[in-house]
Every structure is written in structure tokens, then in C-alpha cells.
Amino acid sequence: MLFNSIEYLIFLPIVLIIYWTLKANYKNQNILLLISSYVFYGWWDYRFLSLIIFSSFLDYYVGQRIEEAKEQKHKKRWLLVSLCSNLGLLGIFKYYNFFADTFAISMSSIGWEVNDLTLNIILPVGISFYTFQTLSYSIDIYRNQIKASRDIVSFFTFVSLFPQLVAGPIERASNLIPQIQNKRNLNLTLLKTGVFQIFIGLFRKVAIADNLGVYVDSVYANYEIHNSSTLLVATIFYAFQIYFDFSGYSDIAIGSAKMFGFKFNRNFNFPYFSKTLTEFWRRWHMSLSFWLRDYLYISLGGNRKGVIITYRNLLLTMLIGGLWHGSSWNFVIWGGIHGLFLSLEKYTFSALKIRTFNTFGYLYTFIVVLISWVFFRAPDFHSASTIITELFSFNYGSLFIGDINAFVNGLLLLLIGILIDLKIFRSNVTLEDYGIRFSTIKLTFIVSVIIIMLCLFYSTAENFIYFQF
């Protein structure tokens, strides 16, 4: 079930009405949320419910065993059960064919032909997100940062809560489980800000991202015939397409959760207003970047074991973060670019004894991010390298417009989106709290305008980009 679908616009109010009629008993609310989340997830393919239920049972049981273990070695063994089981499932469904293909190509390069080792496997929607969520739960118990949950319904709801199930934000157990295990009261402020954020998210996805995608798809589908100007504009459009697509998803997720009385953590904080790549990663997909920092970078040693080890840890973290996004060398290269420049930044800041760059940093950061997005968007390494070569050949002739309506619509909506972001960014109020600034009448007017714009600029309903990860 897609957030930008008619089904969800019917599903959400129905669940919401039933949910608040049960407000006298939060345990019944949790049962409703659990059932609704399984319906939401099973809408794609009910067979994959078995995976999320297995992961939930596994970490519910393992979490208690870790907490009850008397010796550290026993705690570690149970943690390894969680790590191997969850990462094993992720490896089979997401990475097996990638590594099988890589092995076959490597062998053929030395003259040894092997049979096709790939399997006919469908990638379960959201498996990367809920796997990281359950892993962080087990690791936090192992680190004595939280207590194991004894309420099986609450824990299963934590894993599968539908607003964040498919593409995040990746919520920590320390934030979400206590909210699930306590009574929630209808909060009109949360309701108002939730409605505002949902419609901002829909505008970002349906109006801006989808219209930008029309032009991006047309250019990247025929990248060989386009000059540097056209590829540059398409890549800039893609940079904002993926931002508005994924931040739009996060807005709908966070807004939906608010309507049920939950407060999710922020996932985006205007990343393109960053002076450094380090700052960019504190603002982009924050739930993932902080997850990688807390559970991978710090576990590798962080910056505690010398300069060289610090740079190694940064690079490894970003390489693995790239691979997390998809089973392709393009994603690994994308992560490697970020890891390399993060290391260079760290070295520069240390050598010059500075904390950030001046205004020029905005341009530098955007250029690095823009170049890396080519590898993220291109279907394979050959096409990505061809596009990069053309961009740096400086063959900046006439821009190919193609469908003039698609181009103008995309450009117009992009400018509107940037202006809205700039307005909120300068207000020093987070988007999550911005809706409280409006009275009910003003909020109704804003929502009405957004609905009109959605109707005027509606593109074909598509999956969110991050659903493929």
C-alpha cells in the first residue's frame, strides 16, 4: 500500500477512527495497530509477512536471553544469533544474486566459466529498514542501554508499525517502545501538525518529485545522445527528485504517526543547506546516518584509535552504507565517494584547525553530492562512467528540453519547493512543528491549496524511490 495511493487515503482514516474509539485501553490500540500494520505490509505480498514475523519472534526472544545472561560471553553469543540470523536473511534476499554474479564475472575473467548461480528471489519491501531496527534493539540490550521488552504485542508493533515500516525513519527502541507501552491521549496539536506534514509530504512527492522524474527518466534512459548541459540539468533534477521523494515519504510517515499520538525522530533537516559533507550527513536520512554512526562507525573504533584508523572507519562505514542501499557496485562507489570526501574534510579541518567552510562550502558540498548521485541513479557502472565523462568533457551546448510541459512543470515546482524549504529553514522552526503556527482556518486553506496543486500537477502514481532499498 502506497502513501500516495487512494487505498491509503481510505485506510488511514478508518484505522484512525477505530484507534481513538479504543483510547481507554492502549493495549487494544496496540493490537489494532499490529493487525493494521500487517494488513498494510501484506498489501504488497502477504507471503513476506512470514519474514517480518520471524524477525520479530527472533529478536523478542534473543533480547530477553541477552538480558538474562550472567556472563558476557553468553550475552555475546545471543547477540551473534541476532546478527547472523537477521543479516543472513538480508544477505540471501538482497545480496545473494549480486555476489553470485560478481563471482561468475570474476571467474570468467580468468577463463573459468561457471554455471548460473543466481536464484529467482523477490526483494521483500522494507527488509533493510526493519532489519536495522530489530538489530539496534538487540545491540542496545547488549550494551545495557535499554531493557528487553516482555510485552510481545508492543514489541511486534514496534517492529511493524505501519507509518515507518517500509522506508523508515529507522526508529530506536529507546524512543518508540516506551510510547507504545504507555497510554496515548488525543493531542490536537499533534493532530494539526500531523495533517500539515502529511500534505507537505504529498506535495513533495506527487507534485515535485514525480514531475522532476519525468524529465530525469527521459534523459537517463538515453544518456548516450545527450550533451553535458542536458545531463547536468537532469542530474540536478534528480538530486532534488530523490530529496523531495524521500523527505516527502518521511513527512507522511512522521505525520501519520503523530495522528496516532507517536513522535518519530526527524529524518531530514534541509540537507542541501549544508556547508560541508559532514553537515550534509547530519541532515540527510538522519535515522540511517546516525544508525551507521552508532552501530557501525563507533563499533569499528570511531576516532579513538588514531588518525589512520579513523579514516579507515569512515570509509568502511560509507562503503557499507552504500551497499545497504542496493546490491550494485554503483552504490558501493557512491558510498566510497562520500567516505573519501568525509575523510578529506576531517583531515582538512584538523590541519587548518577549523570547524566548517565559508559560504563557498555550500557549492562544494552540492557538487560532491551531485557527482555521487550519478552513480546512484545510473543503471550500471558503464552508464555512470559515461555520464561522468560527458559532464567533465564540458560539452555544454544547447539544452535538450524534450517534453516542454514536463520540463516547465518540473522547473516551476522545483522552485516552489526550494522556496518553501528556504522559508521554513529561515524560520528556525522545524517542519515537524511548523503546522502549529497556523490556525485551523489557515491550515484548512493551506491544505486546500495543496490538494488543488496535487490535482493540477498530478503525475503517474509511482513507488517511492527508497522502496527499492
Residue stretches low in confidence (pLDDT < 50, at least 5 long) are none
What percentage of the residues does DSSP assign to strands (E)? under 5%
Span from first to last CA?
16 Å
Tell me how many strands there are.
0
- Structural domain tally: 2
Q: Give the helix tally.
A: 19
What is the general shape? globular
Main pleated sheet = none
Radius of gyration: 23 Å
SSE string, helix = H, strand = E? Answer: HHHHHHHHHHHHHHHHHHH
InterPro entries: Ac/AlaTfrase_AlgI/DltB, AlgI, MB_O-acyltransferase, MBOAT_fam
Organism: Winogradskyella marina
Family: Belongs to the membrane-bound acyltransferase family.
Transmembrane segments: 7-26, 46-62, 78-97, 117-139, 331-349, 361-379, 399-422, 443-461
Describe the structure.
The chain has 469 residues and is mostly helical. The protein has two domains: 6-184, no CATH class; 189-275 and 357-468, no CATH class. Helix content is 71%, strand content 0%. It has helices spanning 6-21, 26-42, 49-68, 72-109, 127-142, 152-160, 162-165, 173-180, 188-220, 228-259, 277-283, 286-300, 307-325, 329-352, 360-377, 381-391, 404-426, 431-434, 440-456. Helix 10 (228-259) crosses helix 15 (360-377) and helix 13 runs antiparallel to helix 14 (329-352).
